[in-house]
Write a structure and sequence with these properties.
Distance between the termini: 68 Å
Helix content: 25-40%
CATH class of the largest domain: Alpha Beta
Radius of gyration: 29 Å
Shape: globular
Structural class: alpha+beta
Oligomer: single chain
């Protein structure tokens, strides 16, 4: 029997009693008419919910208004429906498929449409969307039975929706959302009414396969974005312009860092300069390993498929794996390192005194990513992670997790990521292990964060299939959010591999395994870093740290002496003595984002000095080569961001 009332804890710590089945909008109106009017959505125990959704149990409730970041997600989701409404009004025979799950930046809809949408079509759709917004209709949430929904969509001629109904598990509530005359299958959440959508813009159109399967028919997808006000849209457009200028897919080849080739799809080739930056990242992580007592291991790339059955990856991950066969045995190309580290742990008898054991591995990994989601370095098929696994006792979990969290925060600070968002990702629907195990694992991670006083958000259902995790998101120089590091708690692999240690009581116990990555994929981090810095790497990481520029060939001998002196001290330096004007060579060095230009003319050769310019053009002035070296090596040694 359901309770008559529910207790909802608000952000200020107060508790509000409401009738069972009350909605977040009811709560907002109960707090005050002003909040009720301003409400756009709500978060219940950290999960976005619709304002009109009945609340069945106690929880932590937060009303979302236009001042909250999550408001944009709800606004864009709602604008998505407006876009589909506009397409149906313009072309009534069009069938609608599904929208987008992630509304952090965009929305989208797929349509069964007889041709590719043109730029002119997008203008018409956008104009029609503004007409619909002017109607100021309210959104209505409707719970409906499966049979009723199927009958409705059959009457509407929406056969794709009937197929989508089959994807909803039995017993799950089926909801529709209606505004004006438009109705669609949707979980929500949505704004109260269309006037809360302040600005819309369509971005592009493309062909996509239904459900992402190349064996299915081609549908037409339209992307757009929306905000609460035109001012927010203008700020977004400015950010897009800046992100295009920083795009690592353009800057990488321009700076001669990497290239891609059809012979190895989605697998980057790092050129000498790119390899220099890549290795610089790895070397920095290795320094942290020495400080935090990690032991590095090297493990094979191709392993018998039985290993992946034991680990559970075959059942849960095989669609993203590459396979091969040798001597009538099936093998898999390694998509992650964790099972190989379990094999190493198991090679000898362990005592509780030996724990924690920390293995780090830069082994090359391969995962199959569909061609439609591949994006430069940020989504590739061949990569390496700064991957590590900690085997510890249950009593050591909290200290080990906190040590990793501190290590990750320290690393991000070095790269200038000042704003770090931490999320606790909880059990997914498809998972291994009992609910009791998940309760214990989630409680351990939550307890570690709260003991340290670390602010975090809950990301429900986004844990790994073997355990919950702490995820780290950073904001780059232009405000975009990137998910990077992760700390994952795993009781499953130690059990599946039969890992044991001898405890203080003389009995055998099962260790706990912590999966940990800081950069994540080195390739992906490098792509993000290129965009974060706009290719202007800090001095310690720059592939060429200084270029020596003699004004004319008369000063080339002295310039070569300076180059050799800088190089002998450990700087990565080049001599550019080409028969080109000095201004041309300086501009080229600036385009290539070389941190320092060391100019040598008659006065410098006579005085035994150099004149140094920073890459942005600011002069460092005249100084001896030794003084410049002292300045530069201090910046390199302390990994300063600025020159």
């Amino acid at each position: 029997m359901a309770p008559e009332t529910i207790e909802l804890t608000l952000p200020d710590g107060s508790v509000r009693s409401m009738p069972h089945g009350a909605t977040a909008l009811d709560v907002a109106m109960d707090i005050g008419p002003g909040l009720g009017k301003a409400a756009i959505g709500a978060a219940l125990d950290g999960e976005l919910i619709d304002l009109r959704q009945p609340i069945a149990a106690d929880g932590r409730l937060r009303i979302i208004t236009s001042r909250d970041e999550e408001a944009g997600h709800v606004i864009r989701h709602s604008a998505e429906h407006v876009m589909a409404d506009a397409v149906k009004r313009l072309w009534p025979e069009t069938e609608i498929d599904a929208g987008r799950q992630d509304h952090s930046e965009k929305y989208q809809y797929d349509f069964r449409f007889p041709r590719t949408f043109t730029p002119e079509d997008l203008v018409r759709i956008e104009d029609k969307m503004r007409e619909i917004l002017a109607e100021r209709s309210s959104f209505e949430r409707i719970e409906i039975s499966r049979d009723e929904a199927e009958a409705l969509f059959r009457e509407m001629g929406e056969s794709l929706k009937i197929e989508r109904l089959k994807d909803i598990p039995e017993g799950e509530t089926i909801t529709l959302f209606r505004h004006g005359q438009f109705t669609d299958l949707c979980r929500g959440p949505h704004v109260q009414h269309l006037k809360q959508i302040g600005a819309v813009k369509l971005l592009e159109a493309s062909g996509v396969y239904w459900k992402g399967d190349e064996a299915n028919e081609m549908l037409q997808r339209v992307y757009g974005t929306a905000f609460g006000s035109p001012k927010e849209l203008k700020a977004y457009e400015k950010q897009v312009e800046e992100s295009q200028a920083r795009d690592h897919r353009r800057l990488g080849p321009q700076l001669d860092l990497f290239s891609f080739h059809e012979e190895a799809p989605a697998s980057p080739f790092f050129h000498p300069k790119g390899a220099c930056v890549y290795n610089g990242l790895v070397d920095f992580v290795r320094e942290l390993y020495a400080q935090y007592e990690y032991d590095e291991v090297v493990t094979p790339q191709i392993l018998d498929v039985d290993l992946w059955h034991t680990s559970g990856h075959y059942e849960h991950y095989r669609d993203a794996m590459f396979f091969t066969e040798v001597d009538d045995r099936q093998y898999a190309v390694k998509p992650m390192n964790c099972p190989t580290h379990c094999l190493i742990f198991k090679t000898k008898r362990r005592s509780y005194r030996d724990l924690p054991v920390r293995y780090a591995d830069f082994g090359r990994l391969h995962r199959y990513e569909k061609s439609g989601v591949i994006t430069g370095l940020t989504r590739v098929r061949s990569f390496a992670q700064d991957d590590a696994h900690v085997f510890c006792t249950p009593e050591q979990i909290e200290d080990e997790v906190l040590t990793v969290v501190r290590m990750i925060q320290r690393l991000y600070t070095v790269f200038g990521f000042a704003e770090i968002l931490i999320e606790l990702s909880t059990r997914p629907e498809k998972r291994l292990g009992s609910d009791e195990m998940w309760d214990q694992a989630e409680g351990s991670l939550r307890g570690a964060l709260e003991k340290e006083g670390i602010d975090y958000q809950v990301n429900p259902g986004d844990g790994a299939f073997y355990g919950p995790k702490i995820d780290f998101q950073v904001r780059d120089a232009i405000g975009r959010s990137w998910q990077l590091g992760t700390v994952q708690l795993d009781y499953q692999l130690p059990e599946r591999f039969g890992l044991r240690y001898v405890g203080a009581d003389g009995a055998e116990h099962q260790p706990v395994m912590i999966h940990r990555a800081m950069l994540g994929s080195v390739e992906r981090f490098l792509g993000i870093l290129i965009e974060h810095t706009a290719g202007k790497f800090p001095l310690w990481l720059a592939p060429v740290q200084a270029v020596v520029l003699p004004i004319s060939e008369k000063f080339e001998d002295y310039a070569r002496t300076v180059e050799q002196k800088l190089g002998a001290a450990g700087m990565r330096v080049e001599l550019d003595a080409r028969n080109e004007k000095l201004g041309y060579r300086i501009r080229e060095a600036q385009v290539n984002q070389v941190p320092y230009m060391v100019v040598i003319g008659g006065r410098e050769a006579e005085d035994g000095t150099v004149t140094v310019r920073r890459r942005a053009g600011e002069p460092l002035g005249a100084m001896t080569p030794e003084a410049f070296l002292d300045h530069a090596m201090k910046l390199i040694g302390t990994r300063e961001l600025e020159l």
